[in-house]
Request: fold
Amino acid sequence: MKALIALFAIAALAAAGIAQARDLGPDEALKLRDAGTIQSFETLNAAALALQPGGKIEETELEEEYGRYIYQVEVRDAQGVRWDIELDASNGQILKNQQDD
Reply:
């Protein structure tokens, strides 16, 4: 019985964590940009590419996590290595720059 209760508690915590991040669609992202809440996508893309000179952006995504807008960028560098980069979309601060597994 204790194991079952622990399993439900873990599932509830996991569900709560998942609910904290949500993908934003293009319309909502553009409204945030136009309102000045987040930086332009050109600025954010340039910041990501500056971390991997000669790289190319393969995918981008904007999420809201715990009230913060996170711009996720997948970059393939000049050597063909994939990088996961996350920026704070409101100020361009680099939050993550790591090689994709």
Summary: The chain has three helices and five strands.
